[in-house]
Amino acid sequence: MSSSQNLVLAGIDGSSLTNAVCDYAAWIAQKVDAPLKLLHSIDHHPEATDHSDLTGNIGVDSRDHLMDQLTQLEQQRSKLRLQQGKQLLQAARERVMQAGALDPITNQRHGSLVESLIELENDLRVLVIGVRGKVHDNQPDKIGAKLESIIRSLHKPILVVNAEFKAPERIMLAYDGSQAAEKALDMVANSPLYKGLVCHLVCVSKDEGRGQLLEMAANKLQLAGGIEVIAKKLIGIPEQVLSEYQGQKGIDMTVMGAFGHTRIHDWLLGSFTVKMLTNSRSPLLLLR
């Protein structure tokens, strides 16, 4: 894999989690020896520039004059957003370099963040992004409006950051034997990112047969070497018992498959992934 297809990409927007996103991205880039790219996307929301409702009931001359003023105002706003974005990227670049990242790339793009990420997907090794952006900055019970679309659209690992940076020492791998869980297991076993860490391999199930699966998964991690493995089988509502386990064991990062369930009620009542994003006390590394 060439370096251009091995990027750690940090999506930043100036929210309160931006510094943490930068810090986690710098940590990953150094651990896996990959280039780091900082992305700021400017979504101009064309609907916000529709001023027809403001001008429909006034005279022609007044309407034209008002439209000119509104157009100039929107141009000024666009220039300001562009300037703010450049300053944000420069500050982020300085921050990740202070953290040890070498020659980070900055990229400012216009348009939908989801579309930008899809275009960049082939170059990604992992995406690092905040659990919420500026819109929900002061709403800790909310996740970002675009986050679920991003997770469903990409097929690369996504680290969702929800707190200030702490160099992970203890991770939790939520394991259920699914294809996504097996992918996560292989990643933890083979990536340099997890060497030297303690891995809590946790399965939530009443099925006794899951115990054998859990044992096989633990053996795979132990054979890979460099990881201390603690295997634990839990019973209860998955998002609740996993969140409780995070707090009890001081878990610094949780690794899990994303949107593994497709039953109708998961779509109606909210998926396990969304519940974990809302309830988790530590960053989530999601795999599709």
TrEMBL record:
Protein known as: Universal stress protein UspA
Record organism: Methylomonas methanica
Pfam families per the UniProt record, alphabetical: Usp
Upper lineage: Bacteria, Pseudomonadati, Pseudomonadota, Gammaproteobacteria, Methylococcales
Domain (UspA) ranges: 8-161, 216-288
Classification via InterPro entries: Universal_stress_UspA, UspA
Family note: Belongs to the universal stress protein A family.
